[in-house]
Amino acid sequence: MKMRSEQEMMNSIMDTAKNDQRIRAVIVNGSRANPNAKKDFFQDFDIIYVVTSISSFVSDHSWIRIFGDIMIMQMPKSDRLITDIDDGSFTYLMQFTDGNRIDLSLVQVDKICFMKRESQSLLLLDKDGIIEPFPPASDADFIVTQPTEKNYNDCCNEFWWICTYVVKGIWRDELPYAMFMYERFLRDMLFKMISWYIGIKTDFSISVGKCGKHFKKYLEAEVWKMYLKTYCDSNYENLWEALFTAGNLFRMMAEKVADKFGFLYPYNDDRRVTAHLNHVRDLPKTATEMYS
């Protein structure tokens, strides 16, 4: 099936809104509203319809077929009663068989004043002149911000704290637990510290993208290569190497952030935890005591 063009998709979205009296306004959010975003065929159409009555739409979901042949979809609030949509919104996440995707949010007109206004937004239609004009779309909401000293200290503490969970899982041969702690929690702290480092390099003027997707663009080649080595497979030796690489990279980034803002890097925590990691790595599986 040939993929419909951006113009064809927008025509479908706008024609539906213009022809339905229940739809009073249309807003586009996200990358398609951002003139600085890289354009490709994976971009979603993040659309908001401001409507007079959500219940008239969600009582029968078949109306969304107007947008195309759906491969798979989600309705995050579908488990709630129609009368229980108390925040005045409902969302359809639709992936179509031609490759296009629409994330369509319905917002009741009397709740529009409570809607969070994103910096990456464009007002496409306002039948009643009820929407306050949007400023020019930008990355403002997503730009890396400077850490407070507490932000910094909490990040360092959490990183080294989570290391002890990872090695516990490795020693116990509990791979799912070890990997969850590593990927879900430890990597979040690494993400924060690298983001602050990039913020310093760019005078806190850019976004690193969702999940750090722009890291490669802003990190030095050797730092990027180091970051890649923090990813591993299910082999425990590779996980150990990735963990120590993550520690070295975190320390490197954290020292630079500390130097910039006059913070104190927790060398004692780092030293003690790193020594513990090395100890557990060499601890026999037959051990009955951690330290003796």
Descriptive notes:
- The protein is an alpha+beta fold and 292 residues long.
- Strands 3-4-5-2-1-6 form a six-stranded mixed sheet, with helices on one face.
- Helix 3 packs antiparallel against helix 7, helix 3 packs parallel to helix 8 and helix 4 runs parallel beside helix 7.
Percent helix: 40-55%
Question: By helix and strand content, what is the structural category?
Answer: alpha+beta
Distance separating the two termini? 67 Å
Shape: elongated
Strand order of the largest sheet: 3-4-5-2-1-6
Q: Outline of this structure?
A:
This protein has helices at 6-19, 55-58, 149-171, 175-201, 215-218, 221-228, 236-261, 267-281, and strands at 23-29, 45-51, 70-74, 89-96, 101-108, 121-126.
Index terms:
292 residues; alpha+beta; 6 strands; elongated
Secondary structure: elements and pairs:
Layout: H1 6-19, E1 23-29, E2 45-51, H2 55-58, E3 70-74, E4 89-96, E5 101-108, E6 121-126, H3 149-171, H4 175-201, H5 215-218, H6 221-228, H7 236-261, H8 267-281
Parallel strand pairs: 2-5
Antiparallel strand pairs: 1-2, 1-6, 3-4, 4-5
